[in-house]
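Re: [help] complex structure
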Amino acid sequence: MSESATVFEGEELSGGSTPPSAPGEAKAIAGKSPMKLAMMRLRKDKPTMVSLTVVILVVVAAVLAPLLVKMGVLDPFSYNQNLLDANTIPEGGWSGASGAHPLGVEPGTGRDAMSRFWYGITFSLMIALTAAMLSVIIGAVVGIIAGFSGGWVDAILSRFTDLTLSFPSTLMLLALSSLGLKLVQQVTGLPNGPLAQGIYCTVVLAIFGWTSTARVVRGQVLSIKQREFVEAAVVLGASKPRIYFKEILPNLWAPLLVLVTLMMPAYISAEAALSYLQVSVKPPTPTLGNVLADSLKYAQVDPFYFFMPAILIATIVISFNLLGDGLRDALDPKGDR
Amino acid sequence: MVAYIIRRVIVGLLMLVAMSFIVFALFMKNPVDPAQFSCGKNCPPERIEETRHALGYDQPLVVQWGNFLKGVAVGREYPADEKMREANPELVSECAAPCLGFSQQLQMTVNEEIAEAAPISISIAMVAVVIWVIFGVLFGVLAAVFKGTLIDRGVVGGTLFLYAFPTFFVGALLINFVAIKWGIFPAPGYVPIAEGGVGQWLLQLMLPGFTLAVVYMAGYVRMTRAFVLESMSEDYIRTAKSKGVKGGKVLFKHALRAALTPLVTMFGLDFAAVLGGAIITESVFNYYGLGKLAVTANNNYDLPTIVGLVLLLGGLVIVANIIVDILYAIIDPRVRVA
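Output below.
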């Protein structure tokens, strides 16, 4: 209770170091843009700021990884059999951690564990981000058209959304993999490799993931289309695409941002699940999912290697989830937690 | 009301038909030729053509789909080709309605496969549902009552933390440490009630049930918390409080009751989804339920089984949707008008 009360006070008083005793002061009454208000609420929200920091760190790490691999600082591919014992388990505790291999090496191959985790972040984030963007684009287009058109267009699109939701998505992702991979190879002309597998994984996640966006956007558009500026655009004879994307879409950035942020952790987890089912990117290219799936068989003999990728995934997923929740609260003008 | 139900059922049926066509079109375009696959590796081309004809894969897609729908409605016989059936009566398999297909590889109907695997999936689903609903709602109410305190944060944060770990990791963790290393639970393996009694059956379902429950628990905690908080701020709660109703009674008889309606909706859909088999959980624990059946069928390119399973699972969700909508219309009269 007290928390929300202070946030509320903060908004009203514009950071208020001075008490509102002087009504003449222009500064105290100065209007704030919704963006500024959101930023203020965000800054006061400690868990969200912490998770934002983690997310930024993760993204920076993901961007840096390919450079570091190219420079040879990270080496996720070389085998170091000399570091493994006769049962191909790393010698020494903590997966055989040492100065050269801070998180030890991978059992079975002796590849540097830290490099594989780090580089894995890059591929997992790439898949998750692309899939999230695709889902939001499909969902926003369907949602805007359904919400704005109404009538039979809305009925058909809404039923189509329901139908997509009714498909058992995990089973479809699994069962479509051989067909999907072949299609990707035909369309893009790529050989069957990590890139084709990654594209399959991304596209198929988006195909079954756009429905939540479509529903949220449709709901928002239903209220936005009643507003005067949309009516004005219609009366002025603006084209449909203009109304959809120039008039309505800019009003949706806040919910869309929240949706993307909340889709990221879902897709990172989904990629891991697909890796477990062997229909995502396959090793030697590391993703967080296939590194974790690979670590399962060493749970007993090399627990450190078993727990590390899981903890890494959990940290990233929690951070994105908290950030998404925090953003939603901050961007919602009625927001009261 | 009756008109609403009829309309809802018709829309549901249309969606099922549309889904079956999409699934059929998708999977029959699969790069793996089912005729070649069931004929074997060293199969001469003319044998492949024969097999294709016998299994009915040479028919146009729409005809195959029509036969399938007919099978669902009134049952049918396999192999698909009538002459083949007349020539080799010993090969004919009867598939009663609602027939979901025939697996050439396993030489049994998809219905029989499902009947074999379903009890395991249903068992896991039931245990998981009990765990996640009890703890989800309990923790959700707890978090709402102690909103903003350490208890609230602990509960919400704790479930979010559990939820962040991939399901297969949670499963592997439980198998490797809780069951094998520490021996708290017996090594996983499904025991039917008929063999080991209810106690043994339940014991063997605890770990997979918990693994599956973790996936849903976080959502139920958050939803319950939000719904209870929302209904606590309604006017009728203030009225109840101000006329002197006790705190506990306000919470359970007034606030939670109102919060239950949206929870029931969520529950209906989730239960239908887990009933159709938990692919990851069943794979990790190696329980031959519908999910594991799907994985095996996929690895063996057993298309009829996959098509049958997808339609069964999709059908379950669509039916659950219809039931939830109708229940909603009964509870909330406003829905009917639309």
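The interface with chain B takes residues 1-4, 159, 162-163, 165-168, 170-172, 174-179, 182, 265, 269, 272-273, 276-277, 289, 292-293, 296, 299-300, 306, 310, 313-315, 317-318, 321-322, 337 of chain A (CB under 8 Å).
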